[in-house]
Amino acid sequence: MEKISVCLRIRPLNQKEINDNEIIAWDANDQKIQLNKICLKELIAQKKVVNSLIYEFNHCYGQQADNYFLFSTSVKQVIMQSLDGINGTVIMYGQTGSGKTFTMLGKRNQEMLQNNNSNIQQLIKDSFANNQYNDVGILIYSMMELFKQINIDEKRQFEIKCSYYEIYNEFIYDLLREENELSEPLIFGTDYRKEFVIKNIKEFNVTSIEDVIACISKGEKNRHYAETILNHQSSRSHTIFKVLISAYSNESEEEENFTFSTEACINFIDLAGSEKITSSPISDDITRNSNRKDRNKESSAINKSLFFLTRVIALKTQKVPPQHIPYRNSTLTKLLKSSLTGNFKTLILLSINPGLSQYDQTQSTLRFGTSAKLVESKIEQNVNFDASYSNNQQKLNQLIQKNKQNEKIIQDQQKIIDSLKQQIQTQNGSEILTNFKQSEIQLVSKPSVSQFNETDVSLLEKTQELNSQLQQEMEKNVLLEKNCTELHKRLQKSNEQILTYFNSHKEMEQQIKELKLQNEKFEKLSQNALNRLSCYEGQPNFKKFSLEDLQNLEHQIQQCLQEIKIEKQRRNSFQQLNIDAMPLFTQPTETLRSDRSSASQDFRRIEEEDSLPKSYKKTPKKDVKQLQPKKQQQSYFKATSNRLSTLSNNENKSPLLKKPNLRDAKNFAKKIQDQKIQKPTQVQEEYRSKSNENHSQQGGQQPEQSKLKNDIQSLADRLYSLSEKFQLNRDSRVSQSRKSTNINRTDIIYETESELLGDSRTTIHKSNRSAMK
Ligand SMILES: Nc1ncnc2c1ncn2[C@@H]1O[C@H](COP(=O)(O)OP(=O)(O)OP(=O)(O)O)[C@@H](O)[C@H]1O
């Protein structure tokens, strides 16, 4: 959407006004117009204004500005766009005598129009040469510029038509008609866009500025004539000079380009004076010389049209829907509808009388302009689709026809190629070459053109022409075949690529499948773990592992492992001792005898050092039965059981089930050892005395030696079985205690420990046993 441009022009005071001591009230500068200080004071005193009045427009032209400057800075852009199919309207608005016609047609318009086209160009040239840029008006400058542009545009052809008409007392009169038709007003119709159009209006083709001047001249003459016959005052009508510009793209330039045509119209509208007729001094003059009744009628018609124009503009600025805007209420608004509703680049030029006495009229013009500058219009290019469509259709048909012909030629050539291929298959290449050469020789040796009659000549020429065409087509075919093979290769390549992609896609699918399965497995595992965790969470003694707990556990396990290591070393060393001690029992009696005391001392020392395994007891079988009754052994087991049960009972207090550790076992063993220490000494002494007795009685060395050996052996066996029983008993107690408690994390730890310790323990037992044996 684009806003309407509103510019203002303030004319200088004329001689009459100067003589009447008229005061200049307004200062115009760039985009502003305001009351000057002297007049402001005056008007404040008259209570017409309170504050300084400033109005802003697109451009404000002062008294020094001339028509050409006004044209080049504001009007030109509206006109130039019409060449590209954009409509334009230039409206002169202002009170009578403010300079509307002066701006539109120029100072010398009368002179120019009466000149009968004889020397228009010269007149314009002179004006330029003498810097008299007011001599010609903006309408003339616009048309001159249009022709200038058209003449330099080589790509398009233009058609320009002009029409000139006026609205007087709400009737439209065609000013380009013959004098006898002038009294017949024109009527409105609507076009396909439902826009108002004037029916049967005369349009004249113009190709130069002279033609334009001729049109305006004719129109002005008719106006004066009508003034007489219709008794109407020319300045009391609105005049519209309409220019229709059609542009067609130059077809001969590029055959491939479709034709493109645009249509645009420019309306140059010079409105009747906007003042109230009774208040105007000029109108007083008019009324004095004319029929008052007619003048009142004129006045009311002007007032009506200008009132509705102002109303339409006001409603448009208030964004009232188009259907509620009263365009139909006056002829002027009907005509200006398209200029105001859209698709028209509209420029309103306000012409202002500078005199203070005309303050009210000027103020009214300025208000109109302020309101009008808010109106927006949608500007679009008018493309003549019909013309371009028909042209395009025609071209399309031609192309289709051409294409059909080409297809036929290709088919014919294809047939020739097929036949040639067949020939190649039936004959060999050299024969064809020979045939071809022969036909060539025949062609060369054919009678000259002069020997033929005219028909023959033309036939020969035609044949040659066809041959060359055929050659060209064959070349084209070869090229096409080449292209086809290339395309085929590319197709194959892309097929291969697709296959590779397909395979990799399959592989990826397989991988995804496997990953999915793995994922499912992990999900199941994690679900199980979660279920187990929830089970444990339900337990009353469940305690979540903290880092500290885990560190403690690790520490304890490490300790246990260390103890196992020590135990293992101890047992190994003890085993070594046993091995070392074995020869003592196998040596001859003399050595035994001599070494007995030292051996028993060694044995005792070992016992004292607590290096003797629990399973080992060096007591003669016979004497153990007498001196160490079963009862005594049972008491040891009982003590062990008690100890274990105490440990089991302590489980709830301790974070870990206290399995008898090495220290406990050590203490416990020491306790047993303490009790045992006296017994073997006693047994040994008794045994010694007894053996001495036997020895003295039997007097032989051999039976005493074997007896001793047997006794030691049986004693060792017995001791080992006892220690095994002790071990079994302890394990059963432990398992019982374990069963009696809930499975909790202590069990898990205990299991780990027992696994570690149990294995090594079994190994130690086994090695001990084998060593003993
Ligand atoms: N810019 C100007 N410089 C000098 N003289 C001017 C200028 N504008 C207008 N005039 C003079 O003022 C007088 C009135 O001008 P013009 O006829 O153009 O007024 P108008 O607004 O067209 O009046 P009407 O509505 O009656 O047609 C003319 O004599 C004209 O020469």
UniProtKB/TrEMBL annotation:
Transmembrane segments: none annotated. Residues 3-375 form the Kinesin motor domain. The keyword Chaperone does not apply. It comes from the Eukaryota. GO terms for cellular component: cytoplasm; kinesin complex; microtubule. Keywords: ATP-binding, Coiled coil, Microtubule, Motor protein, Nucleotide-binding. GO terms for molecular function: ATP binding; ATP hydrolysis activity; microtubule binding; microtubule motor activity. PANTHER family: CENTROMERE PROTEIN E, KINESIN HEAVY CHAIN ISOFORM X1. Belongs to the TRAFAC class myosin-kinesin ATPase superfamily. Kinesin family. This is Kinesin motor domain-containing protein. It comes from Paramecium tetraurelia. The lineage of its organism: Eukaryota, Sar, Alveolata, Ciliophora, Intramacronucleata.
